[in-house]
Specification:
434 residues, alpha+beta, six-stranded mixed barrel, 16% strand, elongated
Length: 434
């Protein structure tokens, strides 16, 4: 029976090609606009580390002075170097990482490659296991390298391709700001979306090319990039010195269970109380321990304009569906004679209803395919924009399936009223139109 209704639908389309094309275009425009914005939203609002996001926590302590302080306000979202190193030494979590971004000069040994600047991350040994960074060659350094201020680095695949021609570079030397560093590992292509562990680098920043021990970077007097909040008088000291009153270090911990998270938060409260008694902290104890998704919500990572665009696109889709519904109703009225003959020959209302539903479904399938093409064009235009997240606007298989399902569902919804209207009118009324 479905094949019969499909044949009727195709015959109907041939009789009114212009109207059919108009309905398909209306559905396609709505689906294309909707899926373009929905795909961008899907990419930008996704979980950057599924299966582990509820076990990774950003740590915040309030070490600042009381200038402009108000009760209940949020603490500084980064730690001082002193506090980060103290927490790292205590080792109260399964894994813990202190880190900050930097910009470094790379001086290739190949005279044919000019020196260049690239982004780096100063961090501790647990970084790669905690954030599940994938390796193609070698591995991470260890805690002993952190303690020894070893001159070792992990580099990205793109940097390895540029400097070493893509070969296994583990054990080879690379010059970073005139310091000779030994490569211990090469990462595969890796770009967490969002760049959740350091939002000061940009919510959707690319991954760094160089990773080095934090202790080594401080020993070599490397600078840092990103946000830095200082209070009081640093004097002649660098704001990156151990005792400088500046927060600029991100600190993350991995905790295996809610019980461990509760125990670690209690430890942070205890640590803050101790630092206040020692005279370092002057504000009341104020700690935060947020998991990945709570951290992204708190930092309002998803651009507000993207959410607005999704709502506007769905509104446009509704307008397109209303227009399609109107065209289907008009088409139904024009075919009242055919409907009357079928009803007079014994076709039940259910079959008439199904006939028009199948016709709407075919329109939806055609509109969905054309809408998919329009969505690809829309995403291509997004990728041409200067937005930080623009290169990420890619449609995956999940969104491809959503496109087809949405097109079919939308067209069937638009076709319900015309189908019901065609099925409920008595045959005699239709036969009068012959």
């Amino acid at each position: 029976m479905f094949a019969y209704h499909l044949d009727l639908a195709l015959r109907s389309f041939k009789r009114s090609r212009a109207l059919t094309a108009l309905m398909v275009l209306a559905i396609a425009l709505g689906i294309g606009a909707c899926m373009t914005t929905l795909t961008v939203y899907h990419v930008l609002s996704g979980n950057p580390i599924p299966g582990k996001s509820d076990r990774l926590f950003d740590v915040e302590l309030d070490a600042a002075d009381k200038v402009n302080w108000q009760p209940g306000q949020e603490p500084t979202f980064q730690l001082t170097r002193f506090d980060a190193e103290a927490l790292l030494r205590a080792g109260r979590a399964k894994r813990q990482v202190m880190m900050s971004g930097s910009n470094v000069a790379v001086q290739p040994d190949d005279a044919g490659i000019k020196p260049f600047y690239t982004r780096a991350r100063m961090t501790s040994a647990d970084f790669f296991a905690m954030f599940e960074a994938p390796f193609i060659y070698g591995s991470a350094w260890n805690a002993g390298d952190d303690a020894a201020k070893a001159r070792v680095v992990v580099i990205s695949k793109s940097l390895n391709d540029k400097v070493f021609g893509g070969a296994d570079s583990v054990g080879r030397d690379i010059t970073i700001r005139r310091a000779t560093m030994r490569v211990v590992g090469v990462l595969a292509d890796w770009r967490p979306v969002p760049h959740y562990f350091d939002l000061t680098a940009g919510n959707y920043a690319k991954g760094e090319d160089v990773y080095m021990p934090f202790s080594t970077a401080m020993d070599l007097k490397f600078g840092n990039s990103g946000n830095m909040d200082c209070w009081g008088d640093t004097g002649a000291a660098s704001p990156r010195d151990l005792n400088a009153p500046c927060s600029w270090v991100q600190y993350w911990v991995e905790l295996a269970s809610p019980a461990e998270a509760t125990a670690f938060r209690d430890y942070l409260v205890q640590y803050s109380d101790e630092q206040r008694r020692a005279g370092r902290f002057v504000r009341p104890t104020n700690v935060r321990l947020r998991n990945v998704m709570d951290w992204l919500v708190y930092r309002q990572v998803l651009p507000s304009d993207v959410t607005l665009q999704v709502w506007l696109a769905f509104g446009f889709l509704v307008v397109c569906l209303v227009n399609t519904m109107g065209l289907l109703l008009a088409k139904c009225l024009r075919r009242s004679g055919d409907i009357g003959v079928r009803r007079a020959l014994g076709a039940p209302r259910g079959q008439i209803f199904l006939q028009f539903v199948v016709e709407a479904g075919v329109l939806g399938a055609a509109g969905g395919l054309l809408g998919l093409l329009l969505a690809w064009i829309g995403l291509w235009l997004v990728r041409l924009s200067p937005a930080e997240y623009a290169p990420l606007a890619q449609m995956d298989w999940a969104m491809l399936g959503v496109t087809i399902v949405l097109a079919l569902a939308a067209s069937l919804l638009a076709g319900l009223l015309p189908a019901w209207n065609a099925a409920r009118v008595p045959p005699a009324r239709h036969l009068k139109t012959l």
